Structure of Large ribosomal subunit protein bL32:
Amino acid sequence: MAVPARRTSKTKKNKRRTHKGLTVPGLSLDRETGEYRMSHRISPSGSYKGKQIIE
């Protein structure tokens, strides 16, 4: 089994992991309630795309 020739430095390790960051969720302003909500999800009032989904 292969063994690394030398230790991986902190810089090299962190450069390899740069793509593993957190992403900001897509928020949009709800026209009916005026509150922010996540995109492509039902609003807290139960409507989606102007239609009442949940009573």
Summary: The helical segments are 10-16. The longest strand covers residues 27-29. The chain has a mean pLDDT of 86.
